[in-house]
Amino acid sequence: MEGRIPMRVTVLGLGEAGTIYAADLARRGIPVTAVDPYVPVLPDRVGGASSTGQAVSGADLVLSLVGAGEAGTVLREALPAMQPMAIYADMNTASPAEKQRLALRAEDCAIAFVDVAILAPVPRARLETPVVLSGTGTDRLLAIFTSWGIPATVADGGAGAAAGLKLLRSVFMKGLAASVFESVFAARAAGAEDWIIEQIASELGPSGHEQVARILQGTSLHALRREAEMRDARSFLEMLGTPHPMTDGAIEWLRSLSRQDPA
Asked: What is the pLDDT of residue 259?
């Protein structure tokens, strides 16, 4: 597979991000197979499979987007069926320690593993969403992603390095979201919601209004997943030996949002 774009890509998991990657790559004429037991309808031009093993058999590149809770199980199912020169890209949000465990499991099967950290919501820029890579297959995957127009950079270190950078970013982004929520809801009670949104948006730059809207609309919807992400962030900060009061507060805030009745 060296020096060429993979002839076959497999996407494991057809949630929001997985569906976008599968659909957009297929539209570019890249043969894509996908599998997700919870999603019966595949994107246009995407082939299906009855199992993880069948989906990855013969694939040059496997993109795992199943969520951190299923990442280990899906990797175990995939590795025995993968060809020796294939790359396994774990694109799920997880702790550096978990990414290292997955990488060791792949190494035992002589499969190149890449820890891929997605740095922004995929629906916003789709394939142009920036990512950070680390792990044994990084150089090869960087060439592939670059050829597809995916803005990818490399984190120094092995698998887990990219995951660590994402968690550091999450400390800021989830703290920002908490501040926006608190300010806007207080301003709403004071009859000054539009004014505070304008103030916040002006500080965030040209895309400020769009960013505030995404925070207000998407945080409650994804609160449970983001709480788990921030728990991983706190564990990482504890490992680094740095204080984390803002992260503690964000976890409690996200927990409260996840328990609210959406009705």
From this structure: 84
